[in-house]
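Deliverable D4.2, example record:
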Amino acid sequence: EPGLEEFHWVTQDTVINLDCEDKQPHPVEQETVCFKVSYDEVGGDWGYITEDYCDTTLENGWCCVYVGEGGSQDLQFEEDSVHDLEYYCKDHLGNESTEHKQWYKVDSAAPTTTKEYAPDAYIDPDTNYEYIDTVHEIELTAEDGGDVCTVGLDEIQYRVSASLADKFCENCSDWMNMLRPDMGPWNTYTGPFGIAEESCHVIEYRSIDLLGNSEEIQWQCVFVDKTPPEITKEYEEGDPYSAENGTEWITSHTDILISAQDPEPHPSGLASLERRITLVDDMYCENQEVCQEAV
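Output generated by the structure prediction step:
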């Protein structure tokens, strides 16, 4: 088997054209090209599979095709694997050229891209909607596909939609199938990126290998929520309470009621409601601005 630098990398869509030219002096110009194709089966044996590529009877293992009068022979490999292609030409007088051999690696499998958020996105357990903040970073990684030959990754591409109506993210699959938004040009991924605008957005991404095998576009609808929750503190009606000039008095029997809500436009929902009580000097309770410095 040759060194890596001697391989020709192709896909199953690559057309290999075989032709002959009967050289001077005194060419008969009635040429025939003969070829053999091998196949290195994964986990199996190496061997010739020329008969699978030939429409005529083999001649001592060679498939010989008349290519005179402007003809030629095209072939495309039908398996992702390592192949060799051997070929030579002959004219009608039996004059034969030197036999040539070329080695090919066939990779027709596209890469696969994986998307992750840092930190993790919040996924609503009831709706399955995804929520991130404007500080979240979106990370893309890719691995070239193929069980046999992998030529390597060329680039990862991504694009993010402009702001969309909430109903788009709420029924993302339906909208993407019916009325895909204009996503604009592709960006080459060079590192984690974020979404600065609070709204519903679509992220599209794909990877392409060095042979041009392109992954089918993957997409994800996501809500970007930057608005923090709003918290309210009240005292139980009828419990001991007094206020004067911004200073409040209660007793140990006064119930303190704390509530919060995550406001529009794209509430991801309240994750937790926390409280703490700190013992401070009287001066902090006499001025609310000073009070904020006590914690």
